[in-house]
């Protein structure tokens, strides 16, 4: 068994620590979001008094802790409701893949513990939903994560918050919605009536800066890694160290503060001391993520990947070089994801550039891409766009960081001239394109060879 590449132990990760760097882990406190959480608390307070919470909209880009903040604060409210015997129900519902009020209403019925009324007319489905709420009674807070998936089909967003006023539900039922969205424009495009009824309060989550990301990563790292502790300072200037032992507790920092009788909100995180992370690892992960989108998810991903790379290379410490490799890999994954989501025309433009690169062509111009694009679009029987419109797709590929589009110095009459270059290896682009069913019959190497032969014949 000694020769196995697998091991039951790790020199880097604490036992059970890796979970703290995974998406599934929900933090109980988010000090960087104290202001946003206080605003949310204000919206939820009426629920603690047995009435309805305010309808609230949480917005901000991906990875800003909107979902985590909502979960943490609702858990707090639920604990209070339990202790006070309040009639309160919270439902957390992800709208991923849900593009209509109808599907959402069906999903909510199921979530509220009744049968899914799928197949019935919309009115019947809504009646089902009101019945389900009447059955439950009391305050019902429905959190709709990724609410923008609904697009403009906002019927339910109009009806649900008004269900009480309109007597759809009994007098003892107080429904409200907390909507969460990454799409800052979505709300503006809603019907004004739905917009008005949905949002009493709106809370914006601005991107994290490098210091905030460093603190978030440090807290996660103190649980995820071996021999890693946090050093805090009290308002009186006294330093103290916190060691989380996952064998002994649930990884919550609150317990550690309780034990030394300190109020966490008064203390400042000074640094992290670690035997397995070199000093620059966390600042570098934080800086990379802050430069890009300021996303905590992205920062955590860099740290997780860097540690996994160090581990797989047999290193006992995570170093700057591992973070750099992790960042490169993560960026490549993002590019691949962007490629997969392109339209057919985007795929055609990408395929044309790929074939030219495969043939060793450098300084690829729009005209060259268009020649290959034309034969490819005929080959897969797709609409053939005019050269200018195809160029727009190339520029979009540049905006998605899939290719580089450089304005060429030569310029041209009647518009700007560009040269194009892939940002990934041609083999990576081919792998993505070959998985697109319309491109099944395309042999990229063969086409590249043909193109090369043609050029040689023309010379
Ligand atoms: N202040 C924070 N402290 C600790 N972890 C955080 C913090 N903010 C975000 N995270 C973590 O970052 C990841 C992304 O956060 P979250 O899912 O809440 O983002 P979001 O704003 O809802 O974005 P999305 O809409 O893309 O899900 C999660 O793993 C979350 O636990």
From TrEMBL:
What InterPro entries does the database record attribute to this sequence? AAA_22, Cdc6_C, Cdc6_lid, ORC1/CDC6, Orc1/Cdc6_arc, P-loop_NTPase, WH-like_DNA-bd_sf, WH_DNA-bd_sf
Report the superkingdom from the record.
Archaea
Asked if Cell cycle is a keyword of the record, the answer is yes
Alphabetized, the UniProt keywords read: ATP-binding, Cell cycle, Cell division, DNA replication, Nucleotide-binding
The molecular function GO annotations come to: ATP binding; ATP hydrolysis activity
Q: Does the keyword Magnesium apply?
A: no
Entry binding sites for ATP: 208, 220
- Domain (Cdc6 C-terminal) spans 350-433
- Supply the SUPFAM superfamilies for this chain: P-loop containing nucleoside triphosphate hydrolases, Winged helix' DNA-binding domain
Task: Provide the family line.
Answer: Belongs to the CDC6/cdc18 family.
Q: What does this protein do?
A: Involved in regulation of DNA replication.
Under PANTHER family, the record lists: CELL DIVISION CONTROL PROTEIN 6-RELATED (PTHR10763), ORC1-TYPE DNA REPLICATION PROTEIN (PTHR10763:SF22)
The name of this protein is ORC1-type DNA replication protein
